[in-house]
């Protein structure tokens, strides 16, 4: 289990979130979806993704594009919706937030994680004129505009960077949630796992002390 998953489960435990009906948008193969479902005691488990996936039979899978398609669920149907490392893959997230609000019951929770555009690493890279990480690259085939050591560990074939089309700061994500009538219950800046030692040390330091960590974790409520 990676660091992001541990942080998500820890936050759900902290707030003692329970959900009879649970939706995971961007569910992937559904393995982590089922871990969350078990923790929150979900009896109905749904997953959405764009891929042609084959998740567990316990997970009811719907194939659609969260950036533009209507979710095929009734209004106020779910108690909990998660989107783990999803919104950075959407060119526009308005449809996602609007549909989440529609299908989430009042008092229900929306939990989101996404890379932090304002991370310490991105600020350092921009300071010296480099491209940022976790954001779109101008080349489809190559990672350009990064120091050689960073480029070595962020090749375009690596899912760590592949497919990201949008970047969020905490303030930007907060604005989107407010526009679509979600109230933030908890915000957390979470560490990302890099593959060079110095970056991991700095990541652990910044994630504890400041808002410069690699990732954002938000728990919001529909009121």
In words, what does this structure look like?
This protein is an alpha/beta fold and 223 residues long. It has a single domain (3-118, 166-222), classed as Rossmann fold. The chain contains seven helices and seven strands; from the N terminus they run αβαβββαβαααβαβ. Strands 3-2-1-4-5-7-6 form a seven-stranded mixed sheet, sandwiched between helices. α3 (94-103) links the parallel β4 and β5 (104-115). α1 (3-14) runs parallel beside α2 (31-40). The chain is globular, with a radius of gyration of 17 Å. The two termini are 32 Å apart.
CATH superfamily: Vaccinia Virus protein VP39
CATH topology: Rossmann fold
Number of helices: 7
Distance between the termini: 32 Å
Q: Percentage of helical residues?
A: 25-40%
Work out the number of β strands: 7
Name the poorly predicted regions. 154-161
Q: Main sheet, how many strands, which sense, barrel?
A: 7 strands, mixed
Strand content: 15-25%
Main CATH class: Alpha Beta
Helical/strand content category: alpha/beta
Mean pLDDT: 87
CATH architecture: 3-Layer(aba) Sandwich
Record the strand order, biggest sheet.
3-2-1-4-5-7-6
What is the global morphology? globular
